Amino acid sequence: MKRRLVGILICLMMISSLLAACGKKDKETSGSGDKTIGVCMPTKDLQRWNQDGENMEKLLKEAGYKVDLQFANNDIPTQVSQIENMIAKDVDLLVIASIEGDSLGTALAQAKEKKIPVIAYDRLIMNTDAVSYYATFDNYMVGQKQGEYIVEALNLKSEAGPFNIELITGDPGDNNAQFFFNGAMDVLNPYIESGKLVVKSGQTGFTAAATANWSTADAQSRIENIVSSFYADGTQLHAVMASNDSTALGVANALTATYTGEWPIITGQDCDIANVKNMIAGKQAMSIFKDTRDLAKQVVSMVDAIMKGGDAPVNDTKSYDNGKGIVPTYLCEPVFADANNYKELLIDSGYYTEDQLK
Ligand code: BGC
Minimal CB count within 10 Å: which of 83, 179, 331, 352? Predict the structure, then answer.
């Protein structure tokens, strides 16, 4: 009898500790479970933002948050009203990849008033003190790697040249574009100054090389004009420094349509599927691989730290001044991809399947 009683007691104790453990789990997840994170992406037109949005949604949900994910069709007023709606709905935190860095100040002043923290995703939001953190890939390093790739591919350290190069970069309203361009030009400029690299179009400055909205069509028509003015007589174009894949695609399209010389070295960024296919086909020499899964993971850990009342992890507190002060930043590291290493980087890592690249 006594034994039976002890047995029952032990059973009861086990059941109650099990129940307590379940209850504890409920409490822990309920901390994030009743919080909503607003995620604003610029557009669905470009592959990368779809991936960024999907990754963010998946990881935030896994961490127990509700997610309001919106894409703004590259239209600034649409993005502003999406943000205003989220603020009106009292989201707990905003993660924003802006279309145009300077257009969100007024909307974000409301976020600040309501004490809604804001993380700038990939692109810095300018001239507002409402941004708490910034997470991105090292944008200057992206440009440096593109420049260095060209230096190596043309063997500029030993060859006498001269080699012809043209430059194409991104949207002037995207703070990243300037960083990409400067990173590349800091590597290429000494060769331009010494005459080893020649920009026949003379379009060497950021403004001349910029592409509104990073548009493939605009990139294509600008390069078609350059080819017909400077390379139509068979003059060889050796390289095009393109800051990203949507512009690189425009370059490849333009050359296919108008250029008869030997195919130049073309750089890019993002490893979009169309561009990796071009890389495999020898129509684009390289792209920068920014593993958006890493960026999303980093941003979710920032969200979590902030929602728990702490400081978010950062590794750069000097590079990104948005006009109102330095924004503490986490920089992920970009790497270059080309026909030699893309399998390891993109397929073995599970970023793409082999079939997607056929
Ligand atoms: C991003 C690039 C992207 C470009 C065009 C930039 O802000 O950092 O990865 O190619 O926007 O969307």
Answer: 352
